[in-house]
Amino acid sequence: MQQAIGVFDSGVGGLTVAREIMRQLPYESLVYFGDTARVPYGSKSKDTVIRYSKQIVRFLMTKNVKAIVVACNTASALALDELQDEFDIPIIGVIKPGAVAAAEATVSKNVGVIATEATVKSGSYNLCLRELDPQITVVSKACPLFVPLVEEGLLEDRITDDVIQRYLHELKDYQVDSLILGCTHYPLLRNAIGRYMGEEVNLINPAYETAKALKTLLEEKDILNRDVKTPALYAFFVSDGVDNFIKFADRVLPVDVKMTSLVNIESY
Questions:
Q1: 95-206: what fold?
Q2: 24-57 pLDDT, tens digit each
């Protein structure tokens, strides 16, 4: 059996990253872990997010994965460096690919970032963007209510429109021309956010950019699957709430999730 890509998130949001990997790398098998028992990560301390992330990487390595994508902005912001130092496997996060795309897209040099409290506080997008272009001004905004709205399926709803207006009106005032959707749930609100921000604002989806970066990484390491005859296999694991996970996954993914397995992640 071909080696798979490991993908993990604090819950279901990382399925937007898994979806892009399935689309852009259709011959790569994938093992997804959603830490649904301990979600959200956005309000947890750095030490806790690092501990959780290490447990998940240890679990994924039991599945013989060849590379790991940290499909969670919070874990990418707080734990990625430690994971890359500790584990002898290629590991990438979602922050750098999103920042690179925003730096390339912006003309006004005013870039907005919407994310969880922890990602905003970490300043990871700001740091990455300023390293890419010191002239960029970054305006960040935590939008904690977006996650429950997405998980309730309220993607096109008046309540969602009201919350978007409340959170994003100041980004309009700053006249950002590129907006990073810096939480894996947020791309699912792309249409509603785009309507409010206007056509002149580029919405940057780090999930899409991360799948592109993953392909480049696999090519560089010479581990891209070139066997186009063997179908890709997808396996899903969670730490709690199997039924809710499957329901959400079936709304997001281009494949049917027939089975999801429960894992005692604390034992890793």
A1: Rossmann fold (3.40.50)
A2: 999 999 999 999 999 888 888 999 999 999 999 9
- Among 60, 183, 188, 214, the one annotated catalytic: 183
Amino acid (one-letter) located at 148: P
List, in order, residues 6 or more apart from 149 with CB less than 8 Å away. Answer: 155, 157, 159, 160, 163, 189
Q: What is the pLDDT of residues 198-230, one digit of tens each?
A: 999 999 999 999 999 999 999 999 999 988 888
143 tagged catalytic: no
Cite the residue boundaries of each domain of the chain with CATH code 3.40.50.1860: 5-93+208-267, 95-206
CATH number, domain 5-93+208-267:
3.40.50.1860
128 in active site: no
Compute the distance between CA of residue 83 and CA of residue 86 in angstroms, rounded to an integer.
5
pTM above 0.90, yes or no: yes
Which one from 18, 21, 68, 72 is the annotated catalytic residue? 72
